[in-house]
């Protein structure tokens, strides 16, 4: 009888662990897809509106440094470009990192 309970508990644990892992994967996929959609929208707005602007083009090196260092290096040209973008497109709700990545795609 004890062996049957042990096997039942092990089977129940395996099923529960599998369901938990599947839920985690589905939740992670949903979050990643939502972030990607936000990033894609930001990139589309920035790249289509500002692709020929000198302030934005001059900020590409600073944007690369910003992205590569996870925001530790913030160059003057990048700050100028971020201010310009936010002034020209106040409806755009994007983080500095999203805007820096969008600048890099131009």
Automatic annotation (TrEMBL):
Superkingdom assignment: Bacteria
Pfam families, sorted: DUF2388
Protein name (database record): Uncharacterized protein
Organism: Pseudomonas moorei
């Amino acid at each position: 009888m004890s062996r049957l309970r042990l096997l039942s508990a092990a089977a129940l644990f395996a099923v529960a662990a599998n369901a938990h892992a599947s839920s985690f994967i589905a939740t992670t996929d949903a979050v990643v897809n939502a972030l990607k959609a936000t990033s894609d929208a930001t990139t589309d707005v920035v790249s289509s509106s500002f692709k020929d602007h000198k302030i934005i083009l001059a900020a590409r090196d600073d944007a690369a440094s910003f992205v590569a260092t996870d925001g530790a290096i913030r160059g003057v040209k990048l700050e100028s470009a971020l201010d310009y973008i936010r002034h020209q497109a106040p409806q755009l709700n994007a983080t500095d990192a999203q805007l820096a990545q969008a600048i890099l795609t131009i």
